[in-house]
Write a structure and sequence with these properties.
Length: about 450
């Protein structure tokens, strides 16, 4: 998989006197939504907001009044998400760290520089960088221009390395879990055997071109901002650990679905105009009882086997199912092949915050956005992780007692049926999910805390 390295970035015009926040949201809809929520909050606080993101999501930022920068072309984004390699515990990080970041690093850095220092001069108004974990350009820019504060936004606890309570990154039995010394050795081996092959060389080549010294083991500590780090989850979901930086603050789940009922590809012809309530009513109307929701994530474009197993499991359970996919036309045949009872429906992107409280449960990939929305809805969840932070989120749901997990690589219709039968027949899961629902703060509070933490720099002399 080869990504193009040239992309024409059109810089937005901004008011030089107003405070400016330069955000980044490389990745899928689950990465974009929280950063859009922060951007909207900063805009309401009086900031000009520029956000770098993949081209398919430019329309989302525009609808919120944010100023988008396209950092990954639609063709490259689709090439990336079409690859089955992306959904492998090793192949996924390799695609992002070894291909996406190096391909966009220089373009992203230059766009930050042209926005923060138009004409080569620092703009008069206050400026802050707000960076997604995959944004190495902002971290490099902070090293090159230490007068500009940087806020690292970490969406899931798996991002932070905590040797005493390490995040689960795979389903493999040999992943070191204890003692802490073995975990630290595991991190060191990952850095030396993988990160030093994928990310470190292009990162340091670019740093050298800017006159900056090389960094060693960039994912160990360097990529965390020295100014402020935000965890977009509550401390009861991931209790503070000994390795968390002192600048870290857990603010809560953002619980933001993006501009109302807009699909993951804004160019699609079926953009939904009615209110969210109308959309959910139309979707759930044909069901005689609350359905089980199935989703593999908005960026997962290789999910035919997952949805086929979902349809068969619903048939065996005699329960209705709602299959959510970014490409409903590829999955629609499953609904037609299923028997009329129970009903199986296929839909595109739907706002989970409005949908899930009216559903019986959810089977999903373990993305932190979907995981948090299920917690907020108070419904049991079956997590089927594939890569990235998904295994860790699944482990946390099991620890909390509100769900079960089944790795996607082991998923079959028979196993899915058995797991769902256990999940939905044991009332302990539903009781625990209802109790956890009361602990989830409104997403607006998490965004307010985030904005408050970001604007601190205006009163500080850094």
């Amino acid at each position: 998989m080869i990504l193009s390295r040239e992309l024409d970035v059109s810089l937005p015009e901004i008011d030089p006197q107003r405070p400016l926040a330069i955000l980044s949201a490389p990745g899928s809809r689950g990465d974009v939504n929280p950063m859009l929520a922060i951007g909207r909050g900063l805009r309401q606080a009086g900031y000009e907001v520029v956000i770098g993101l993949a081209e398919p999501y430019v329309g989302l930022a525009e609808r919120l009044g944010l100023r988008p920068l396209s950092l990954l072309s639609r063709a490259d984004f689709e090439r990336l998400t079409d690859s089955p390699e992306l959904w492998h515990p090793i192949g996924g990080p390799r695609a992002l760290l070894g291909e996406m970041i190096p391909a966009t690093l220089e373009t992203h850095y230059r766009s930050i520089d042209a926005t923060a220092r138009p004409g080569g001069r620092r703009r008069p108004g206050p400026t802050v960088l707000v960076a997604h974990p995959l944004d190495m350009a902002s971290r490099i820019y902070r090293d090159r221009h230490p007068e500009l504060p940087l806020v690292s936004v970490h969406l899931a606890p798996a991002i932070l390395r905590t040797p005493l309570d390490p995040p689960r990154m795979t389903s493999w039995w040999f992943e070191p879990r204890r003692p802490a010394a073995a975990v630290r050795t595991g991190y060191w081996m990952v850095d030396r055997l993988l990160i030093d092959r994928w990310l470190t060389p292009p990162l340091n080549r670019f740093r050298t071109s800017l006159g900056l010294p090389p960094v060693d083991r960039p994912l160990d500590r360097w990529w965390l901002s020295p100014d402020r780090v935000l965890g977009m989850y509550p401390d009861w979901f991931a209790p503070p650990a000994e390795a968390w930086p002192r600048s870290f603050r857990a603010v809560g789940f953002p619980l933001y679905d993006g501009p109302a009922a807009i699909p993951p590809n804004p160019s699609e012809a079926d953009v939904i105009d009615p209110s969210e309530a109308d959309v959910i009513d139309q979707t759930l109307g044909p069901f005689a009882e609350p359905p089980i929701v199935f989703t593999a994530g908005t960026a997962h474009r290789c999910g035919e086997a997952f949805f086929a197993a979902a349809a068969e499991a619903c048939r065996r359970l005699a329960r209705p199912g709602l299959l959510l996919t970014s490409e409903p036309e590829r999955i629609a045949g499953l609904a037609r092949r299923s028997s009329a009872e129970p009903s199986i429906r296929v839909a595109g992107y739907l706002p989970l915050g409005a949908l899930l409280p009216r559903c019986a449960g959810i089977v999903h990939h373990g993305g932190i956005g979907t995981t948090s929305q299920a917690l907020a809805a108070g419904i049991p969840q079956l997590v089927c992780p594939m890569a990235f932070d998904q295994f860790d989120n699944a482990q946390r749901i099991e620890r909390l007692g509100s769900g079960r997990s089944l790795p996607m690589r082991r998923l079959t219709a028979a196993r899915l049926h058995a797991e769902l039968q256990s999940l939905l027949s044991d009332s302990a899961y539903a009781r625990c999910a209802a109790e956890l629902k009361r602990r989830v703060d409104p997403g607006s509070e998490a965004i307010a805390r985030s904005v408050q933490a970001i604007v601190w720099h205006r009163d500080c002399d850094l």
